[in-house]
From TrEMBL:
Stretches assigned to the GGDEF domain: 270-399
Signal peptide annotation: none
Database matches in PROSITE patterns: GGDEF (PS50887)
Superkingdom: Bacteria
Catalysed reactions listed for this entry: 2 GTP = 3',3'-c-di-GMP + 2 diphosphate
UniProt protein name: diguanylate cyclase
Record field: transmembrane: 46-66, 86-105, 117-136, 142-162, 169-187, 199-218
One Gene Ontology MF term: diguanylate cyclase activity
């Protein structure tokens, strides 16, 4: 193994260890989005479980009336399956009522991290619910030899709830084992052969697991696609708001940000200043050194300005070789001082290809009652004055 391969292996291990230390789980190809995906499943299963539970409470309430009817007609004396049915139906009814009550006492929110409370609640609800339905199926086997209730329940759970691989196997295989065991007990008790029923239980459990996995991974793909679309939209939004050459905010984003800043200035009665500048004789740079050199001047200027203004100051490319700086909480005199500092930095800076350049600056302060366009016009007039006075200077124009 050469040094580069060794470095790649070490970097891979270091990356994996760092992900483990930070609690990031790499699962189902979701990476750092796994917790958000799990939170979505908890919320989705809570919604589906609530609807399923309310409908089931109504259904099992009616079914228990039939159980009482069987009791009145002495059916309970015919087969032990009838009292098992009644108590199983009652158990499911109480489980659903209690589960829905606990779930609605603390409703989950749509967050990026799963609710541990609701995750445990849904897990317990699904396992106990299926176990009770297994008891109902055993009663049906004792009465009629049918496992239709178990099969229908297995497929219903697989189609309704989106659960992880590990819990899916535990849920279905544990209840399948319980079902197979008690079918054997029923066979010994009744003296009947339930071999075909056992084959059906295993076969349809495997099919239910397969259906559950198909729907789970379909949801994984859907989640990943939605995340991809969201990130692409975010990227497109960033591209639409940034200048493609200098990577600073563009004229379009200025309208949105300036509206927020002027509103803040009015609300807090704080100063807001604006600086506009462009290069002197920029056409000469393009003509003498080429357009690539001119582009390099713009790119390096954007970087230079960003490094020498406050975090609250915002740089925009206004168009061509013209830039605007929006300075919140800055009076006109301070904005002019900042402009002069930037002017000197540009004058002293040596751009790629040995290009030297200067820029002229105009500054104006936003006045409450005017529009930001009025402020821009005054800053632009100040810039024009700087140009007429010999360039490479700063002018300010009060309201």
């Amino acid at each position: 193994m050469d040094l580069s391969e060794k470095d790649n292996v070490e970097n891979s291990w270091a990356h994996c260890i760092s992900r483990v230390k930070t609690g990031v789980r790499v699962k189902d190809g979701l990476g750092e989005d796994y917790l958000e995906f799990k939170a979505e499943l908890v919320y989705l299963n809570w919604i589906r479980g609530t609807i399923f539970g309310l409908l089931s409470i109504f259904a099992f309430g009616l079914i228990m009336l039939f159980d009482l009817h069987y009791y009145q007609t002495d059916k309970w004396e015919v087969s032990i399956g009838y009292p098992i049915l009644f108590y199983s139906h009652m158990s499911v009814f109480m489980l659903l009522s209690g589960g829905i009550g606990l779930a609605w006492m603390k409703r989950p929110e749509k967050t990026e991290r799963p609710s541990h409370y609701h995750h445990v609640l849904i897990t317990a609800f699904l396992w106990l619910g299926m176990l009770n339905l297994v008891a109902i199926s055993i009663a049906d086997v004792l009465i009629s030899g049918s496992t239709a209730a178990y099969i229908g329940m297995a497929f219903s759970f697989a189609a309704i709830f989106i659960i992880s691989n590990r819990f899916c196997l535990f849920l279905y295989l544990s209840n399948m084992a319980v079902m197979v065991y008690f079918v054997n007990v029923a066979a010994d008790y009744t003296g009947k052969d339930f071999g075909i029923q056992q084959i059906n239980i295993v076969t349809f459990t495997v099919l239910a697991v397969a259906l559950s996995r198909v729907l789970y991974y379909a949801h994984v793909r859907d989640f990943k696609n939605r995340k991809l679309i969201k990130s692409q939209k975010q990227r497109l939004l960033e591209l639409s708001n940034k200048d493609h050459l200098t990577n600073v905010l563009n004229r379009r984003s200025f309208a949105e940000i300036s509206e927020v800043e002027t509103a803040r200035s009015r609300r807090h009665a704080g100063p807001l200043s604006l600086i506009i500048f462009d290069f002197d004789n920029f056409k000469c740079i393009n003509d003498q050194s080429g357009h690539s050199a001119g582009d390099a001047v713009l790119v390096h200027t954007a970087e230079l300005i960003q490094q020498n203004i406050r975090k609250t100051d915002i740089l925009f490319r206004w168009g061509g070789e013209e830039f605007i700086i929006l300075s919140p909480e800055t009076a006109l005199e301070d904005a002019a001082a900042l402009a002069d500092k930037l002017r000197l930095l540009i004058e002293e800076y040596t751009f790629p290809h040995g290009v030297k350049a200067t820029a002229s600056f105009g500054a104006a302060q936003y006045t409450h009652g005017e529009s930001i366009e009025d402020t821009i016009q005054r800053a632009d007039k100040a810039l024009y004055q700087a140009k007429t006075k010999g360039r490479n200077c700063v002018e300010q124009l009060p309201a």
